[in-house]
Amino acid sequence: xxxxxxxxxxxxxxxxxxxxxxxxxxxxxxxxxxxxxxxxxxxxxxxxxxxxxxxxxxxxxxxxxxxxxxxxxxxxxxxxxxxxxxxxxxxxxxxxxxxxxxxxxxxxxxxxxxxxxxxxxxxxxxxxxxxxxxxxxxxxxxxxxxxxxxxxxxxxxxxxxxxxxxxxxxxxxxxxxxxxxxxxxxxxxxxxxxxxxxxxxxxxxxxxxxxxxxxxxxxxxxxxxxxxxxxxxxxxxxxxxxxxxxxxxxxxxxxxxxxxxxxxxxxxxxxxxxxxxxxxxxxxxxxxxxxxxxxxxxxxxxxxxxxxxxxxxxxxxxxxxxxxxxxxxxxxxxxxxxxxxxxxxxxxxxxxxxxxxxxxxxxxxxxxxxxxxxxxxxxxxxxxxxxxxxxxxxxxxxxxxxxxxxxxxxxxxxxxxxxxxxxxxxxxxxxxxxxxxxxxxxxxxxxxxxxxxxxxxxxxxxxxxxxxxxxxxxxxxxxxxxxxxxxxxxxxxxxxxxxxxxxxxxxxxxxxxxxxxxxxxxxxxxxxxxxxxxxxxxxxxxxxxxxxxxxxxxxxxxxxxxxxxxxxxxxxxxxxxxxxxxxxxxxxxxxxxxxxxxxxxxxxxxxxxxxxxxxxxxxxxxxxxxxxxxxxxxxxxxxxxxxxxxxxxxxxxxxxxxxxxxxxxxxxxxxxxxxxxxxxxxxxxxxxxxxxxxxxxxxxxxxxxxxxxxxxxxxxxxxxxxxxxxxxxxxxxxxxxxxxxxxxxxxxxxxxxx
Length: 754
Prior knowledge:
By secondary structure, the protein is of the alpha/beta class. It is globular, with a radius of gyration of 26 Å.
């Protein structure tokens, strides 16, 4: 086992309270964030609770392929067990838990896909349309943590051996060999950790910290193989599962946190083991450990709201630690109104972008359109930036399959112009070309997903998440073969860019006759860098825009979204017919781009909406950054509601609000009403930032001045200083637009750091 990284800088006579520990833990978190920025630069992703690895820790993988990487059951179990043997432990005597990691094994392996399983026939279309295909990726799906709570690691090992004796065919051999080896190494790892912490406790001179370490060691020894019984044991089990899954491949999301914790909390309260302050401290330490996606409230199987006393404690704990946090409050017809108000109050108070709000009515009804019953639909939880998942039952590739529709538009546009001698250009012709190419893009993407499902176990089997999923252990095969439901995500990106481009062409060329197709094409090819290029660009830029309120572009967006959704859904019978093993597969459309906003834009030439060559496409389902400068929330929300695909996936609304709104009961009531209205119109997910424009500008110039500034990037929150300069620019543009500011004012470069 690697060397323990133990932090203790306190004398024997130092006294501590829970509040003091929280303050010190948060400051240490800020210091660690700064250290990560200095070492790694900008990271446009979750914080994950990682700490910088010690200088003497270097993992050297054992390859099983000529390319120097490792694949399949043999490669992954060998290397994962190796890293469990070598990985150091991070231990802070102020914390209630251990389990923070240093790195992801996925990022140490080199080439992501096994070269012995080529997909050459798909690559041309992937490249032509700039498709993020998902092949070889690992997604945010949600494990059934209750399996772990009920069995413990020892029980999981027994379950594996039980089904190994039942499923004796050769096709199951590698699965059980790998999973048993992994669980045995996990149990051994936890025993060693408990022993090491116990040793540290014996050496500790401060009585308060000594007691905490002693309790920590006992907790870890208990759950090394046994079931968690107390709240502390439950959360420590969650922390370790997070660690083990993150270490493997970034892992899945967290689930319905209030309901997961509630039985353990009630047990401890009844037994007199803890009080509310201690419970909140444990929960705050959970957030410090990892920023997983957690859900609060929402409907149970019968539609009753699940908000409980524990739900309030979770909000209070998040407020107490006050760091980047990913909490989703589920809004529905039978919402606990007091809890709703309290969650909004904390959004105002901390201005850290949490919680976000999901429209469970629309999500449930959408999922039921696929043929599922309401009970099952209500069990789906936020499993990433924009996706829902049934804990332990659903396999998907959410956030990891995206079609750059702006690139599809570009291909269609220039094909139309190439054939202009035979067929005069028009928006009707352009639409026909766009439909043709989008059809090919969607079909190729669906076939890529089927290819992934067939071959992912030969590339990267889900050795950790298999353990808390329904199907793999019982059937002796990877979750990509045995999940109860295969609800596969196919997202479109760039809807505003494409809708604005169609509208600009129709308005300026066909309705107003202000420019010809040839003249527009020339300006685009020159990136508007002609003698009258900027004048023409501004003319196209100021055409009726997406999210303007029943504009021409809004109408195009509805048409584009319907086409995209219809094409995605049309793949279901096609793929089912290709492979009976996936006879119940579903493809679910959504609109989402995440940090691909930048990468996608870099592959797209200038577009008719006045966008420059290589400039970012629009973010998710939102309008082009910098367009909505009037604070017209209603128009934007109504437009995004109109383009929701409507099958249980989301097209999120990203909302930036002025922090001058006072945190008063009246303001909270207005915000509650606004959130409810936005979600009742058909929207599915609402992300909110409340950040001062001057503060964000100063932080953009010098991120080091605001190390604790948290922003909602998209479905996740992050420290602003940890984002790349380019992605910070996009966030700044969105926030400035709220107050009518020109986004060009924010086009500044950082003075130092990232």
